[in-house]
Amino acid sequence: MPPFTDDQNLRASQDAIDLSQHGKSTQDHSEFLSAVPEGYQKGRTRYVAVLGTVMSGLGKGIFSSSLAKLLKDKGLSVAPIKLEGYLNIDSGTLNPYRHGEVFVLDDGTETDMDLGTYERMLDQNLSRQNFATSGQIFSTILERERRGGYLGRDVQMIPHVTGEVKHRLRRLAMTGGEGGGPADVVFVEVGGTVGDYENGFYIEALRELAYEEGPSSVCFVGLTYVIEPEILGEQKSKAAQLGIKLLMQAGIQPHLIACRCENPVTTSAMEKISMFSNVPMHRVFSMHDRESIYVIPDALRAEGLDREVLSILDLHGRVDVAVEDSARQSWSRYADAIVAPKEESVRVGILGKYASLRDAYASIEKSIEHASTHLAVRPELEWVDVSEHEPDSIGSVLSELDLNAIIVPGGFGDRGVEAKIETVRFARESRVPFLGICLGFQMAVIEFARHRASLKDAHSLEFSEHGTPVISELPEQKAIEGLGGTMRLGGQDVKVTPGTLAHWLFGQDVVRERFRHRYEVEPAHIERFESQGLIFSGRHPDRPIMQMLELPLDQHPFFFAAQSHPELTSRPLTPQPMFMGLLSAAIRHAYPTLALQGARSRWLACESTTGVPGSTTQPLH
Question: Cα separation of 157 and 344, whole Å?
């Protein structure tokens, strides 16, 4: 069920809150509608709305999350929300080729990949209230209409649809801060581009919100694109000017302009954009390509973006200087480490069926970046589309790549499955550090069953009803019909077995991981696999659901897989332990004597000779 469907917040009998400058109520008694949640305080929360022009894919989420981080670093409570124009209820059934990866939140909401950018940049867990689609909005309104919530009135785009949008934004303002408290600033990212039919009502709702909330309450940011044709050798701003004009025609006067470009935007281009958008030059910013998205906050701070936003929203009085100094130092150290030269490099192969579109594995790529930065190593990623290779040839492909680590990520469907199984076999037999994620975990089980447990016809019920099913449906999944939002989703506790590699990686008996799956290891085969040497080092606390597996360190330097998606919880300052372990093993694979020369951290000191799970000697800390 979409969030905020309680009719009490929309009944005409509810006392409306006066948000108008002229003393008029925003409650329209003729429509039985209030776009104001009970208890909402006008002026408590400010809003920053980021809207795109010219084209999509410019990085609205990166800009918005970077700005949100700058304000959070100043001690302000921030709450982002992504407004999507499509009619899907969530992102769970979208094709990765069209929309990139599905990012699963801790509460199980399947969202757009931009929510991952917000979580990583802000180091803040989000929830279903931080994500909305047109499908959610319309579904809420139509369900309410069927229940008689509008008392027979004709339901219209204005005020009912725009009112629902404003209601959600204000509700987020009340409860979207960390710990469920109020937010100082709500960041609203509108998906798509101004002029799109599907996001027009979002833009209208934001226009209404700015009018109702009053001066210094909403800061509009127009993200545009400055074209730089190589054949001309100069930057052209006409498309940016026209895009901003469309925004102004919709009733939105931007306060700030952020200009995307390959190179720093020239003064000449910025002057033209400033003049045609009615925005002063000091509020037009260059957001050109950088080495990493994680250096963007410092770059925007250096340009004075945070100070301008504080002035526009009259928030200087809420800044905590002590918090800002500490946060700025820790982030700057990380940003400096990203761009610092690296002496060592490792080759990491990512073998999935969506490898031709890197956005399908965006969180995996970011997790590798987090871990490699902390380990001071340069990752060289090799993307291999397993569906383009025959199972019997994938081994030679991997040999030629000379990889130091292999990742088999999640996925659905049987395309490329046999090549993935052979990839796991190659990693196991060649002793190449291996990490299996979700489906990769299941492929590791099937490979072990076939080649170590003598179950030659081992398979998954997801792909075949023939053979021996070592992967089967979770019991609760067998009676479910449909696809959307029906899997085992979100954060779940995992009980970690002491004395295992998993326990050494996490250093805890219970960890929380995020899941997105329908299938599990068939319980009937668990004892057989364990007797043949497979270690299930992470399990459900109360049920026989296997959630992590590994091989003993005296058999393989790093063979690890998880039914969860560890990439969803990795953060820049706190890398996910599975990726830290994999990259550390990759370094040792590429430079066998490096750890003996003096490890930079406990990770490089994890030697198979000093830490065999089950022995009395544990990995060095």
Answer: 57
